[in-house]
Amino acid sequence: MALLGIEARGLRKRLGPNQALAGASLDFSAGLLHGIIGPDGAGKTTLLRTLVGLLRSDQGEVIYTQEGRPADFAAVRPFLAYMPQQQSLYPDLSVAEHMDFFRDLYRLPAAVYRSRAEELLRITRLEKFRDRRAGELSGGMYKKLGLICALLQSPAAVLLDEPTNGVDPISRREFWELLYRLADQKILVIIATAYMDEAERCARVHLLDSGKVLASGEPRAVLRDAKVSSFEEIFLNRSDRKEIRPTDTGGTSNTAAAGVPHA
Amino acid sequence: MSLDFSPGRALAIARKEIRHILRDPFTLTLALGLPLVLVVFFGFAIDFDVRGITLVIHDSDKSRISRQFAEIFASSGYFLAVEPAPGSGVLRELDTARASGVLLIKPDFARRLIGGRTAQTQFVLDGADNTRASAILGYLPGILRAARHRLTQDGPAERITLSTRFLYNHELNTRWFVIPGLAVIVMGLLAIMLTALTVAREWENGSMELLLSTPVRPWEIILGKLAPYLILGLIGAVFIYLTARLGFGVPFRGSHLLYFLLCLLFLTASLAQGLLISVATRQQQLAMQLSIITGLLPSLLLSGFVFPIESMPVFFQYFTSILSQKWFMMISRGVFLQGSGALDLARPILGLSVIAGVLLTVAAKRFKKDLEP
Amino acid sequence: MPEATPAIETRDLVIRFGKFTAVDGVSFTVRRGEIFGFLGANGAGKTTTIRALCGLLAPTSGEVRVAGLDFSNGGNAIKSKVGYMSQKFTLYNDLTVAENLAFAAGLRKLDPEAAAARTRELLGFIGFDHPLGAMVRDLPGGLKQELALAAAILHDPEIIFLDEPTAGVAPAARERFWGLIGRLTDSGKTVLVTTHYMDEAEHCGRIALMRAGRLIALNTPEALKSLAFPGPMLEATTEDPRVVSELSGRPGVLSVQPYGMRWHLSLQDKTAWKSLAATLPPGLTLRHIAPSLEDVFIRLVEGGER
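Predict the joint structure of the above. Result:
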């Protein structure tokens, strides 16, 4: 599997009245676990959807690289896996039926599928729940099934939109263990999250607010540069400066961006 | 169709859809229960009353009395008298659908009446168009009574008899005529409703976002979703057929193979209409409302089920050609009651094929491949 | 209402759906004016318990007394004393702020004048500064939840149930929301709240921990921490993760949990700490920390089936 990297340059995207992305530039270097951290409405979902080709940016571009060489979106698309934030499985289909469905969509050879499916079920500890319907899974198991469906095709990059939201601490920890396994296999992992404590679990963090990148880099370096001890503080400081509301709907985008601009 | 179309992926969609169907009691009940209920319900309830029926009078007697007798029919208000077709056989008008009824007066009509004998007349009806035939049948006794009363001074007018004869639908049964038409309405509505929810549901429960991030193509989704409902719709069609034959004793004069093949064609067009609604609305509630409006109203009013197309304004005679129900109405009645073959039905078959192809293509083209608002 | 009666009292509460036992013999008491936290894995039975307490679900067996009232006459007496903000539905997105509040007032049959006064009061309470004609769908997530809270307490209930009120809400807005909860209990209301954010749970006076329908712990956050971790808790930092995995086999080391770039080590007692400190691998830094509620949660809930 080829090492895959993604770079976004100056992405701007307007959705209805909101400027969801306001010139975001990010470098998702290959083989690492990246976190996109930001509050609700920061533009995380829009960014991820743009990276997987579900939305087209109004301005700016997304550059994909394979083994360091630029590659077409069409060429890398089969190796991108995406797990949406909103519920996106079929409540009336079982775990096994979901896996069958995605096997057929990805046209996986039977032998590859068998070993892969068993492995994924084992590491997600869903083996005992093969026949349970998605609508009857708990929040954590549901998210893990979503991840299984995304991973069946052996992707080179996995993009996950708030996979741990509404998940209890234990499931959340298990989920992170899975993500580390992926990163160990040099798979590019990009995870969007609103949990600030998850930021420091990533190899690289990208702080996003109001469609702009506040800071990017290795977690400890970002904290050091911002002269704070937690990521929460960066956003709290910023919210104070913006008066009352963490996100504004009026369209007056806050131009006095705090933090370190990304090079 | 895009080059990278994969039958395997379309099949994956189809298999998944079958699982949804089997697990959703609503869809199954709709597909199998609705045709039965509607056909039985409407089959007993629907009856028609028509005015302005075209009538040709062949008066071979040409006496004063026979002209008076004919005049009473012509001015009864029920009929619209038209000139006989020149130089043609007596019943040619019915064959060419110039008229729905023909009144025959025998040459010795006046002579027999004056001589105190029975004077026979005959009314020949186009029985295939049961809407009119049954109505005419209801009017005849009244008109005959009026004629006897008016002609009394010329002799014993009670002696005038009027026999009726039906072409095509010899036993004249309203239900024979209504039910093959009803099959069209019910089958069409059912098919539209079945697929109208499928794509909208994927948008509403969020699965579309995941689906779109996989390599699946619009044509694969469209065809994958069409196939299972085609089977389900065909089962519904068989139910309707059985109800018509066993429940109402409607005769079937055509080829079964042809009929069910054309059912498939009609179902494809209707399912495609439902898919297009689903693709365009992306909301289940809106899709359901639209499917009922577009599936029921035009097919009841404009398909020729209630109002004969030939009696519509010229604009509507053409406009109705975009309705798959109009074409299948001709097919269903033709195959059921007249035993029409594929050649007789070439025009409706072509019409249906064009509609099905256009609807499917538009649905696939309108299918969104991304999440752009 | 006499102060002596507790806000909520359940004894041996059991709720079954068919063969599935969602709540399995739960007994607890919530005092008036308390912030009572309800924690547990997804599917542990938290929401089901709350529904029974709001009078929405009849208990299969056991006793429920809310504001001194029981479940007789179908829970209707209870419903007027409680406010409930559910996990799934909060407000109608396609109605304006004013329409949503008017609808909530209508449901509670408040007379128009009282409703208007109460609405003004609550909008002041949450510091609402958007136009009342704004569509709810256009409001930021945090504000929507504050508004949902206002709608849930329009009829001035004594006891307020909040089921994951801050799920998916921005950190600053979550802080504000918990500020509101604090002010409610200061004014004598009782709040029972569930959350998956363990940092929020620190605000609770007492916490009930559920697992598979049963109550497995009930105490103050501090007491839960010392109960779950009687020995010292350490935070390990290193560049080489292999060093840490080697630690987990040492005697006296109860658990090693990854926390981002760090690890949390829980030790049996002071002796274990001394022996560990004496033989510390190179490149590893350790420092004493207080266990977080997340540590407690994992420690207490882990092990049982979920």
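Chain A has a mean pLDDT of 84.
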